[in-house]
Amino acid sequence: MEPPIRVMARVVQELRRECAARRFDPAAARLEIVDRTIGDVNLRLVTECEGPEGGPGDYRMLADELGIALPGENLNGYVATGGVYRWLRDRMTTAERELLAAGYDPRIYDIHGIGNPILRDWLADDLRPWGFTLSAANIALGLGATDCIDKVLRGLAHHKTPGAILFATPGFNMPELQATAYGYRLHPVRTAPENNFKLTADLLEQELATNPDITVVYLTITNNPTTFAYTPDELSELQSVLSKAQVYLLADLAYVGTGPPDDDRERMRRLTADTDLTPYLICVGSFSKTHTLTGERFGWVAFGDTAFAAAMGASWTNSVGSLPGDWQLRYMAYHTLFRRDPGLIPKIRAFYRLRRTSLREQLRQYDAEHGLFDHIYLDDDATIYNWSRLRPGADCFEVLEKTGIAGIPGSTFGYSDDYIRFSVGISPISFDGSHPRTHCEAGHDLH
Predict the structure, then answer these.
(1) Which residue in 440, 296, 433, 309 sits closest to 365, CA to CA?
(2) pTM over the 0.90 mark
């Protein structure tokens, strides 16, 4: 079954192909059909540049600074040096020597299948400021967060009777398809706008009491699609309910790291504070959204209990067999890059903030012209989305028709089509508004 998000993205591709077949002006087609469906950030398409060219606000440089751009590649007027591109490859060689010296050969079959111990130890160290006291034995690698969630659900289903899995809606829907494949009963729980679309402790307690077959609660700590994040107090209240019920918490951290660092650190410290929940805590993260490395598929799982982590290892062995050698080396190289240049993550956060702010302003202007929205929500300064409520009778196709923007209907996330999600990832926000125009002082107007 094709995920609904990809269906909408495919609609956009088909529209663009039809425009090409009819020989419409390509530039006009790009302006009239804007893909805001899938949340991938295409750094090659970034045009935003605040301040001097080549300065800290020149976001076109991100593709070069992250080693994505090829040497000499033209990034909307900025020419990539290729320095990081080459450095990553040199660093992969160094990483391979380090692994061989430690007795791990990435070129042969790994019978455990969970990834090399050096990288897993580095990731465990990354989690210590969040309150985790883990070792490499608690960490398993995966090909992105989605792959990690799939392996966890597979392992849990094998470990005990699958039972039911609770999904708070609206929420990321891919794990629902995975859970169905492994025999879980899906148990969606609708959240309320007045609670910022978050699962409350009272609602969770009620659902667990009336549905004793629930064995897993899937929770996105910083939510896709709503862009709201659980506060530390909200997480403590949920923990209290879960630890008493002894139900597994599968915490999706895909967007923890896109928001203010102090806020993310505090909510994660609170999440790990309840030692009664530790044996049932499973956290999944990746570099995809927080580090704009969606195509690299760098994911990880942290299990609160070491013995349980060992038991889950069979799911890795039986699914992937052995994780790719070069992929692990590149993962290690990128991990070293972010330690070497700690300013990269704040720059990515600032870039996301710029685009979210610009998108909200664009939506307000379209709303003034077409009357499309009932409420354009703010966010918790996190994620790469906007979540808004349409006026009665409007839907995502009317938005596409009148604005050229393709969003994702709320039903995709287990909610209603009164809501729509837009991504800021794929392309810049270009419009004439009252906010400062993005430009380079030393260069050309990028709009």
Answers:
(1) 433
(2) yes
Tokens encoding 387: 């979540």
Among 244, 215, 245, 222, residue whose Cα is nearest residue 155: 215
Q: How far is residue 191's CA from residue 199's CA, in Å, rounded to a whole number?
A: 6
User: pLDDT tens digit string along 178-187?
Assistant: 999 999 999 9
> What is each CA distance from 13 to 40, 43, 44, 406, in whole angstroms?
15, 19, 18, 11
The DSSP bridge partners found for residue 440 are 51
What distance in Å separates the CA atoms of residue 192 and residue 51, rounded to the nearest whole number?
Answer: 41
Identify the three-state secondary structure at position 378: coil
Q: Would you say 124 and 136 are in contact if contact means Cβ atoms under 8 Å apart?
A: yes
Q: What is the pLDDT of residue 35?
A: 85
CB 283 within 8 A of CB 123: no
Count of Cβ atoms closer than 10 Å to residue 181 Cβ: 13
Q: Tokens in use for 128? A: 């210590």
Question: Would you call 363 exposed, middle or buried from its count of C-beta atoms within 10 A (0-12, 13-18, 19+)?
Answer: buried
Task: Please name the residue that has the structure tokens 């009664």.
Answer: 276
Per the DSSP assignment, residues forming a β-bridge with 34 are 405
- Which 8-state DSSP code applies to residue 441? T
Question: Which tokens hold the place of 73?
Answer: 């590649």
Residue 379's contacts (CB-CB under 8 Å, 6 or more residues apart) are 227, 228, 356, 385, 386, 387
206-257 pLDDT, tens digit per residue, is: 999 999 999 999 999 999 999 999 999 999 999 999 989 999 999 999 999 9
Residue among 158, 180, 154 at smallest CA distance from 167: 180
With beta carbons less than 8 A apart as the criterion, state whether 315 and 309 touch.
Answer: no
Domains of the chain from N-terminus onward:
4-85+344-440 (3.90.1150), 110-321 (3.40.640.10)
Following DSSP, what letter does each residue of 60-71 receive, concatenated? GGHHHHTT-SPT
| CB 362 within 8 Å of CB 404 | no
- Which amino acid does the sequence have at 152? V
Tell me: pLDDT of 339 over 80.
yes
End-to-end CA distance of the chain: 39
Contact present, 420 and 390 (Cβ < 8 Å): yes
Asked if pLDDT for residue 34 goes beyond 90, the answer is no
Residue 369, both tokens: 């012209």
Name 74's bridge partners.
Answer: 79
